[in-house]
């Protein structure tokens, strides 16, 4: 049977988190991102997770301090028309450019809470223990809570829903006495935190996270957010949604929301949740409850990267132990950094800079997982924790190597604690394959089999970090090297696409 009967190999996909926490608040992010989309696609980015572009508390807010789901930078609210990222018009243009270049957009949906209310309302509440929200630590009393959302700048366009105290389950501030605490709002006997099992059990019941916590048991809240999902998918071309803080809001609602989107727009949407917890067991149970129509960011893998990067010649063979990508690779979005792993954020798992090339090799060049590249590693970081692009500016080459060569059967050489390697054998339509070797100690060498079909070929490191050449023997083996605390990616020097590794990726996104 000839090759014409063979099915084409599915192209490797890579997503990028298209922002970092300290992107300048100059309302030009959509414009900058749009200009760089063609180049991102050329270097191997297929989908971009964009920041939460709904109106925040101010034009400085990153969107997690969300005010209005239905304002994408269109209305004069909270002292601004544009969001931190830009105007709705610029957002729509950026999304259309992405669509024209075959790049999908994943929206960052912040559905757990609202902030920066328009007015206060009096409601009955009790204080709860911040470390166990099932325990009441005060009697019932009236508080003045910032829970009145009128959205006056929008004047009912897209949604006439206004929010009041009974649409929320809790707040963290009493304006009557200026006290900060966690208050559970009371009402009818059924009102309270989400039912046990419907949110994470951390802190007794982790329904409350921040701000004014939405009560998805209220039918008006349920219907308004369901309507928003349909609305945003018709306003801008989307391929998926990243859900913020899924530990904290109703799993039952989220299952309904996903079914609603699939039923309305057809299957094929990508959904991923931020379930940031170093517990594989809890993640697996969550995926079971979501019927595996959902992905999660592999937080345990990030913690492993962090531990190994800060250890002295730690055991690389254990890098995937206890990770989601090992247990359920189809559901795992693998990553090295995001806005929740920066030093300034509460969810800390810092990864030392020297280890990032190794970490990106481990997520981009292996068969398992759906890798996510971080904007701050690609373009550098601004603000208090400013830093240049990671991997010595070579991260685009890792992305391109994935797109061109990381295909086919995988053979692991995890036989030495501080030096590991693997081979991708290629496929009939991506025939070149690659060999990867890395060390977190001294320079390393791995004798690895790439296949007798490559006998006599000369392989070199696409990164250019290792200057030697490897001639593949008649038995299909080669001796592949890497430098001290480094990684090398070996490919036939005459492989299709090798000339592209001499090109320069434009990291100067802020110079446009």
UniProtKB/TrEMBL annotation:
Domain Glycosyl hydrolase family 13 catalytic: 13-415
GO-annotated molecular function: calcium ion binding; hydrolase activity, hydrolyzing O-glycosyl compounds
Record's keyword terms, sorted: Carbohydrate metabolism, Glycosidase, Hydrolase, Metal-binding
UniProt-listed SUPFAM superfamilies: (Trans)glycosidases, Glycosyl hydrolase domain
Cofactor(s) this protein requires: Ca(2+)
Pfam name, any one: Alpha-amylase
Any one Gene Ontology BP term: carbohydrate metabolic process
NCBIfam families listed in its UniProt record: PRK09441.1-1, PRK09441.1-2
Identification of the protein by name: Alpha-amylase
Organism the protein comes from: Podospora fimiseda
């Amino acid at each position: 049977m000839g090759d014409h009967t063979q099915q084409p190999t599915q192209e490797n996909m890579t997503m990028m988190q298209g922002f970092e926490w300290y992107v300048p608040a100059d309302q030009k992010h959509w414009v900058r991102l749009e200009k760089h989309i063609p180049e991102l696609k050329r270097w191997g980015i297929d989908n971009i997770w964009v920041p939460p572009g709904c109106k925040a508390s101010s034009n400085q807010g990153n969107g997690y301090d969300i005010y209005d789901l239905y304002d994408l930078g269109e209305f004069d609210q909270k002292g601004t028309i544009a969001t931190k990222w830009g105007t709705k018009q610029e957002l729509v243009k950026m999304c259309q450019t992405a669509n024209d270049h075959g790049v999908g957009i994943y929206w960052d949906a912040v559905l757990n809470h609202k902030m920066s209310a328009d007015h206060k309302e009096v409601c009955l509440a009790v204080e709860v223990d911040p470390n166990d929200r099932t325990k009441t630590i005060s009697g019932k009393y009236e508080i003045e809570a910032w829970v009145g959302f009128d959205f006056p700048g929008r004047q009912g366009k897209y949604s006439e829903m206004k929010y009041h105290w009974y649409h929320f389950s809790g707040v963290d501030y009493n304006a009557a006495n200026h006290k900060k605490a966690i208050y559970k709002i009371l009402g009818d006997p059924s009102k309270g935190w989400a039912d046990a099992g419907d949110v994470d059990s951390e802190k007794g019941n982790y329904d409350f996270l921040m701000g004014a916590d939405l009560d998805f048991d209220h039918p008006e809240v349920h219907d308004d957010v369901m309507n928003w999902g349909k609305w945003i998918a018709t306003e801008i071309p989307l391929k998926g949604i990243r859900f913020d803080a899924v530990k904290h809001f109703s799993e039952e609602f989220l299952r309904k929301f996903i079914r609603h989107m699939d039923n309305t727009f057809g299957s094929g949407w990508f959904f991923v949740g931020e379930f940031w917890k170093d517990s594989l067991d809890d993640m697996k149970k969550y995926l079971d409850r979501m019927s595996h129509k959902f992905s999660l960011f592999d937080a345990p893998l990030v913690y492993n990267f962090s531990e190994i990067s800060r250890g002295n010649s730690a055991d690389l063979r254990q890098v995937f132990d206890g990770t989601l990508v090992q247990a359920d690779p189809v559901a795992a979005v693998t990553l090295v950094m995001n806005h929740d792993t920066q030093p300034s954020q509460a969810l800390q798992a810092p990864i030392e800079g020297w280890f990032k090339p190794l970490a990106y090799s481990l997520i981009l060049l292996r068969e398992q997982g759906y890798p996510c590249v971080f904007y701050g590693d690609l373009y550098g970081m601004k603000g208090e924790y400013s830093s240049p692009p990671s991997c010595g500016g070579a991260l685009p080459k890792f992305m391109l190597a994935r797109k061109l060569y990381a295909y086919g059967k995988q053979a692991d050489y995890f036989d030495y604690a501080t030096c590991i390697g693997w081979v991708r054998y290629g496929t009939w339509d991506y025939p070149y394959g690659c060999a990867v070797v890395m060390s977190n100690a001294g320079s390393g060498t791995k004798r690895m089999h790439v296949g007798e079909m490559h006998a006599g070929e000369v392989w070199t490191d696409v990164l250019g970090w290792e200057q030697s050449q490897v001639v593949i023997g008649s038995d299909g083996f080669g001796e592949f090297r890497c430098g001290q605390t480094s990684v090398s990616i070996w490919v036939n020097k005459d492989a299709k696409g090798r000339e592209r590794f001499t090109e320069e990726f434009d990291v100067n996104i802020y110079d446009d």
